[in-house]
Amino acid sequence: IHAERVLLMLPANVIMAARVTGTLNTRDVQTAVERLRARHALLAVRVQFDTDGGARYVADGVPAVPLREVPEAPDSTEPRWLQEAIRESRTAFPLEQGPLVRFVIVRGKEHTHLMVTGHHVICDGRSLTFLLRDVLQLVARPDAEVEPLPPPTPITAATVDRPPRSNWLKRWVMRLLARRWNRRGISFDAGDRERLHQAFWERNTAPRALAWELDQVQTAALAARCQAEGVTVNSALWTALLAAQHEVQGDAEPFRRQAGMAVSTRERLQPPVGEALGFYASSLSLAPGYDPGLPFWDAARAVHRRIQRALARTDVFRMLAAEELPPTLLDALYPAKYGLLEDRMAARMLARMNWDRVAYGYSLTNVG
């Protein structure tokens, strides 16, 4: 486990759902998922912690991928698949037992929802899209061969297109920091991780999940209009969120003048990642600005230009700096944030990474 170690203690999961017209046979889905262990290596791993604080993925002794089946609730005020998504987001993964992925089938009268949840340390949204597609293709064609993929490319200084620069002074400071931290002897076990997950969701009880969607005709119309206006769909959605936030909340709070966006790193690695299951995402932060006096598409073009300039100068592999830190110090950041660890060094690192405060007014993530 390399730079993604910073996500190992993250008490939130990644979820993707596919809506299928008709029904799905549970046994067919389970069989397809198990066969895909030969294609996606991280579908069947657990985390093994070393005595020196390092961690690695291992495949031996990993149980079958869990699959639950639930019926639709016809009298519910919100879709059952959305209820299950909330439940899945609040359910921790047993890292040392594995696997780090699980499925849910939600049955309805006309549609079936196939939902996959993964620990962020082994996946991103695009990974789960590929995985759902592969499962459904095998269900449709159970006699098809499963084409193995190469082992997922790790994100290291040797595999990225532009590794971050480091100088001797920074390396000396990092070594000094590591020695001081390692003398503390702080580490975390499964019980600590479970308490962290509970503390996270006890504090974050207010957020709600809202389901809003475009049908196929609306989606095609949006994509065509964006192309005609010279912007991406991502930039148009960013502008819409920015306009809504400005109208509803204003921008008096400093964090509401900052926004975050997920960025795929798949195309920037060697060897190419392709459709592998893995964590291949970074983030972009900027103050997109918004002029309510501009017509929407003029505003969208202005936002689009700012995003493109920010992408050109942003180091999307700055996460590699995390490899210079002791892994257990990275593990300590979330416990320090949620009151489960009192340690000055962890608190200072938390503040340096801006994880101790609200950083964005909104953030937009997509599936690539």
Outline the structure in words.
This protein is an alpha/beta fold. It is 36% helix and 14% strand. It has 10 helices and 9 strands. The strands form 3 sheets. A 4-stranded mixed β-sheet has the order 1-6-5-4, sandwiched between helices. α1 packs across α3 (125-140), α7 (233-248) packs across α8 and α9 (327-337) packs across α10 (344-352). The chain is globular. The two termini are 23 Å apart.
Helices and strands, with pairings:
Elements: E1 13-21, H1 26-35, E2 46-49, E3 55-58, E4 67-71, H2 80-89, E5 101-107, E6 111-119, H3 125-140, H4 168-182, H5 190-203, H6 216-229, H7 233-248, E7 259-264, E8 281-286, H8 296-313, H9 327-337, H10 344-352, E9 362-364
Parallel strand pairs: 4-5, 7-9
Antiparallel strand pairs: 1-6, 2-3, 5-6, 7-8
Biggest β-sheet: strands ordered side by side in the sheet: 1-6-5-4
Structural class assignment: alpha/beta
Strand content: 5-15%
Helix content: 25-40%
> What is the helix tally?
10
Q: What's the count of strands?
A: 9
Indicate the overall shape. globular
Radius of gyration: 22 Å
Instruction: Output the helix-strand order.
Output: EHEEEHEEHHHHHEEHHHE
Largest sheet data: 4 strands, mixed
Q: What is the end-to-end distance?
A: 23 Å
**Mean pLDDT over the full residue set:** 91
Low-confidence stretches: none
